[in-house]
Specification:
The chain is mostly beta strands and 482 residues long. The chain contains three helices and 36 strands. The strands form nine sheets. The chain has a five-stranded antiparallel β-sheet with strand order 4-3-6-1-7, with helices on both faces.
Length: 482
């Protein structure tokens, strides 16, 4: 059996006339029905399973007619893994069994059932004693259901902090490590080692770097043996193909060698990248599962002709001509949208420009898109987080945090949407850098930067049940920094 999905994009509800299609099974969520005039709500979708004979005789003409009405968009999914009686299978932490269609098939019914559920930005009193600019990004620990924040200016303090996803509490812990102020810029989970590696920023030129042993909760110092520039890296991403963590080069960008962590051995490995990049080139990286690439997020590199990605199939860094217009310091961080197969870059200085950009992972091209232009300014956002049940990407507010209006991407339509936060406790200008999705409480936690020493921090509460297990939240689909 083959599968086609029809999405209703009109302004009103409709019924589809499928009288010409014989032996077609219509799937609403997880229910299969034999219908010739299935009802489809506005913004909703149905899925049709049909035989090869039906496809050859009727399907093309009927679907073309539906598309011509302007109310239906259609796209074919591969028939290799979908059958009438098959349940979608979620990927493992390592993602060696990842299937794009299967993951999409898992998400879509849950998103459809919760399409009318709302969200709200919330204050919470954390009770922690933290340094201003204390943290920069973080990572989810699926072993203990915690979010470990990467210590930046907090590095030299005796206590660091994590968020307990079971309770929502912020917990101080004595780490016992010797770290700089500032120390780290991001954190990335290693699923095969069950470790969270902090990304060396101010700590990069020190002999020891640090990771969290997620089995014990201990902070472990390790001698990396690498020759790295001061403030070498900012963010990175997990490579499930080679079981590596690639750091995104900032001050290291102009050096001959960059570095990754070999998660088979725990060793830091220098590699000659062979490309030309400017100083402070990248801030963050995002994995594209359908291309098996890690795209570095362009910061100072943004206004250069070429950007770079890691080809995970070969382990090489490749330059690509993006063909768009972006300002210097354009982006910090990004997030992958599995339904659209896109990577949305989080607008930093680009926030004030007319066009923002995403990477189309079907084609590998960079695409400009317009936004509403309300409530934007340079240094607006730093980081972004995909919320799977709401099918939204929330940009993490930096200098825009104190404004009443923030933005997110509606991954159903691709539109930039605004929402009013109604928060009064935000006073720090560069409030947050990076965020992490909590699959236990279905929240998006913003990681406090300048907001660290304020009484209240903030999160987005999706007011519906969680839809993905911790295993998926710790995979490369979500596992990136900042």
């Amino acid at each position: 059996m083959d599968l086609i999905q029809l999405t209703h994009t009109g302004l009103s509800n409709t019924s589809l006339n499928l009288n010409d299609l014989k032996d077609v099974t219509v799937r609403h969520g997880n229910v299969d029905e034999k219908k010739t005039k299935p009802y489809v709500p506005n913004g909703g979708f149905i899925q049709l399973y049909y035989t090869e004979e039906v496809k050859n005789s009727h399907i093309q003409g009927v679907i073309a007619g539906l598309i011509a009405t302007g109310h239906i968009t259609a796209y074919f999914l591969t028939s290799e893994t979908f059958y009438e009686d098959q349940t979608p299978v979620l990927p493992s932490l390592r993602m060696e069994d990842y299937n794009q269609e299967s993951f999409t098939q898992y998400l879509r019914p849950k998103q459809q059932q919760n399409q009318n559920m709302s969200f709200v930005a919330c204050d919470y009193t954390h009770g922690a004693t933290a340094h201003a600019y204390g943290y920069y990004g973080g990572a989810y620990d699926p072993c203990r259901d915690r979010i470990y924040m990467a210590p930046n200016r907090q590095g030299a303090q005796p206590d660091w902090h994590y968020i307990d996803c079971a309770t929502g509490d912020v917990v101080a812990y004595t780490h016992g490590a010797t770290a700089n102020d500032p120390a780290y810029l991001g954190a990335i989970y290693s699923p095969t080692e069950q470790r969270i590696y902090f990304v060396p920023g101010g700590q990069s030129s020190e002999l020891n770097w640090h990771y969290v042993n997620c089995r014990t909760g201990d902070i472990v110092a390790y001698a990396h043996g690498a020759t790295a520039a001061a403030h070498a890296y900012n963010g990175g991403a997990y490579d499930p193909v080679n079981n590596r963590i690639y750091f995104a080069p900032v001050n290291q960008a102009t050096q001959t060698n960059w570095h990754y962590i070999d998660c088979d051995t725990g060793n830091v490995v220098a590699y000659a990248h062979g490309v030309t990049a400017v100083n402070i080139a990248y801030t963050g990286a995002v994995y594209s599962p359908t291309e098996e690439r890690i795209y570095f997020v362009p910061y100072s590199q943004a206004n250069q002709t070429t950007w770079h990605y890691v080809d995970c199939a070969t382990g090489t860094v490749r330059a690509y001509t993006h063909g768009v217009t972006a300002v210097q310091y354009a982006y910090t961080g990004g997030a992958y949208s599995p339904i659209q197969n896109r990577i949305y870059l989080s607008p930093d200085y680009q926030c004030a420009e007319a066009n923002w950009h995403y990477i189309d992972c079907d084609t590998g091209t960079v695409v400009a898109y317009t936004h509403t232009g309300v409530g934007v300014r340079a240094e607006g956002y730093r980081g972004s987080v995909y919320s799977p049940l709401g099918n939204r990407i929330f940009f993490v507010p930096n200098w825009l945090a104190t404004t009443p209006t923030w933005c997110y991407i509606d991954c159903e339509t691709g539109n930039v949407e605004e929402f009013t936060t109604e928060l009064s406790s935000l006073t720090a200008t560069a409030s947050y850098v990076g965020g992490v999705y909590d699959p236990v409480r279905n929240r998006v936690y913003f990681i406090p930067s300048e907001q660290s020493d304020q009484t209240e921090w903030q999160f987005i509460n999706e007011m519906s049940n969680p839809c993905i297990p911790p295993n998926v939240a710790g995979s490369a689909l979500f596992n990136k920094a900042p």
